[in-house]
Write a structure and sequence with these properties.
Oligomer: single chain
CATH superfamily: predicted glycosyltransferase like domains
Strand order of the largest sheet: 4-5-6-9-8-7
Number of strands: 10
Mean pLDDT: 75
Low-confidence stretches: 1-25, 125-137
Helix content: under 10%
Largest sheet: 6 strands, antiparallel, barrel
């Protein structure tokens, strides 16, 4: 599996997730395995803003599953930033900024419905601070 540039400032994942189970699939888009750091924030009913980090387990153009210790509730609205891996040996990766809504919660993380298309892609270096402090606490 790998990411490849598609020539239009976008990314293409080259391996589709397979499942040994045969559940009813209600997804509209293929889901792909991708481990990428994610930073996110959300506001609670008491108007407090919280911040969290995690890592994607898989994603599609319409959402992702995020592995995280944060306990979010279904319906939570998140501001999200995905730090995509670089495609070449040299150079920075890209960042994808989007807004999403939690649609499923599991013990190891949550599923989010979000716009993950090329319009959300920002070609800027990933924050060195996130890389060293975000997930490796």
């Amino acid at each position: 599996m790998g990411l490849e540039a598609n020539g239009r400032a976008g990314y293409c994942v080259t391996e589709r997730l397979n499942s040994n189970r045969a559940p009813v699939n209600q997804r509209q888009h293929n889901r792909y395995r991708l481990a990428a750091p994610v930073a996110f924030s959300w506001e609670t009913e008491d108007h407090r803003v919280h911040h969290g980090v995690g890592q994607t387990r898989d994603c599609s153009i319409s959402g992702a599953f995020v592995l995280s210790p944060e306990r979010l509730t279904i319906g939570s609205v998140l501001q999200m930033e995905f730090f995509l891996p670089r495609l070449q040996a040299a150079g920075p990766g890209a960042r994808l900024k989007t807004r999403g809504r939690v649609v499923r919660v599991e013990p190891e993380g949550f599923a989010v419905l979000a716009e993950m298309g090329p319009s959300s892609l920002a070609h800027r270096p990933a924050s060195p601070e996130f890389a060293t402090n975000g997930l490796e606490k």
